[in-house]
């Protein structure tokens, strides 16, 4: 392993150096896609996220912690956002925050799986994120940034979000499977 400042070479792959990398909420996004009427893709995102990564010398010993303010949901429709925040779905008055805490990391070169506990509406389930390290850049103010992308699929009913309506021709108004896409920009803080 060869360290070159905020990055290092591990097995020929460029990775972030060991240290604490905090999420930059202004340049990060947790987005989701579900289906309406079983056909139309509907997208949303959370604008208020926090947390970070503690990158260990052995990348598989690293950890991830993310907190999402569920009321920060935006889908392009005020009525839909209000419904998402309601007790039918996110129930933000009772469960304002969602959490992800990693438990185990499997890593090869610049990508891997991050397994952890995801808590939404006070219900914790195991989730696995397919993560890739997108690269490093030094910002104009001298800060070192590491960028990551991730994707996973969830069944919203596993988190108590069972609201739905049957369709006359069969199927349901809203899909139970949701795809989550994550773009995270982190800043090296120590």
Please tell me about this protein's structure.
The chain has 190 residues and is mostly beta strands. The protein has one helix at 78-85, and strands at residues 2-4, 7-10, 13-16, 19-23, 29-36, 40-46, 49-55, 63-69, 73-74, 97-108, 111-120, 123-138, 144-155, 177-188. It has a single domain, classed as Beta Barrel (Lipocalin), CATH 2.40.128. The chain has one helix and 14 strands, in the order E-E-E-E-E-E-E-E-E-H-E-E-E-E-E.
List keywords for this structure.
elongated, mainly beta, eight-stranded antiparallel barrel, 57% strand, Lipocalin, 1 helix, single chain, 14 strands, 190 residues
Class by helix and strand content?
A: mainly beta
Radius of gyration: 18 Å
End-to-end CA span: 19 Å
Strand order of the largest sheet: 4-7-8-10-11-12-13-14
CATH topology: Lipocalin
Low-confidence segments, given as residue ranges, are: none
Give the C-level CATH assignment. Mainly Beta
CATH architecture descriptor name? Beta Barrel
CATH superfamily descriptor: Lipid/polyisoprenoid-binding, YceI-like
Average of pLDDT: 92
Order of helices and strands: EEEEEEEEEHEEEEE
Task: Give the arrangement of secondary structure elements.
Elements: E1 2-4, E2 7-10, E3 13-16, E4 19-23, E5 29-36, E6 40-46, E7 49-55, E8 63-69, E9 73-74, H1 78-85, E10 97-108, E11 111-120, E12 123-138, E13 144-155, E14 177-188
